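Throughout our pipeline, every protein is held as a single compact record rather than as scattered files. Such a record has a labelled line for the sequence and another for the backbone structure tokens. This encoding replaces a full spatial description with a residue-level series of whole-number codes. For reference, a complete record is included directly beneath this paragraph.
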Amino acid sequence: MRHFTLLSAALLWSASSLVAQAPAAAKAPSALDKTTMEQYVRHLFVWGPQINVSVADPKPSSDLPGFKEVVVTATAGQASQQDIFYVSNDGVRIIRGTVYDVSKNPFDADKAKITTDLQPSFGPPESPVVLVMYSDFQCSFCKDEAKVIRQNVASTYPTQVRVYFKDYPLEPIHPWAKPAAIAGRCVFRQKPEAFWDYHDWIFEHQSEITVENLKEKASEWAKSKSLEPIQFAACIDNKATETEVAKSQAEGRLLGVNSTPTMFVNGRRLVGQLQWPQLKQIIDHEIEYQKTHGGGEKCCEVTIPSPVSTPLSK
């Protein structure tokens, strides 16, 4: 009996030892782990090592109960892209998309990010429709869209639409776009009503302008509009308005703008060039919408490199 007991004990010790030495089961991947999440989105978007990817700490989602919110930011030079992922509490399921609250206007979040104070504009201040365009003076699509807006909006909607211009020069691909934006702000600073003349002139002469001749041509134009030439030249040379352009660019990045033209009609994002019938239909819809839902409604391409993305500008 003693022999059996000792043998049993030995067997039990041996079995428990084997269990202790057995490797632990592989841990299931979790999107709540930053490294796992980064690897997943890199594969999803085909982002190579040249793309910097930052994964924020997960936080409880106020939009989707039972999920964590994880913000992923990718940058490559001036280009940036930010995506919000909703991750289940076990880290297994991921949702990428926009969560809407039917009690709110779906465009309120973007409208809240747009500032229009002290920006070039035309149209009545109390218009029910506000169109904000982020544009680049060297972008050919922007030139075409600008012509559509200038030729149609004021004449079709003299009391119903206000248009704002926001600088969004795409520096990596358009070398004179930012200097042109700085010069435009110099015009606006000295003589606000002349800005739209500058806007129309520079788009019209887009093919003639280079980095080397921009200042000379802009100065010649300024003289024809009775701007003070010494003051204008000094503003350009000192880049006195560069901060204003930078603020406009930062706002665009906050909104996720990565191509020009990008417009917001009462907060509704419109990317790329639109023909007038299409834009008019959207404006007409907003005018009608404001009649019953008024109150509180006021208001070329640099993207993350990926073979699955589609350029929207030239």
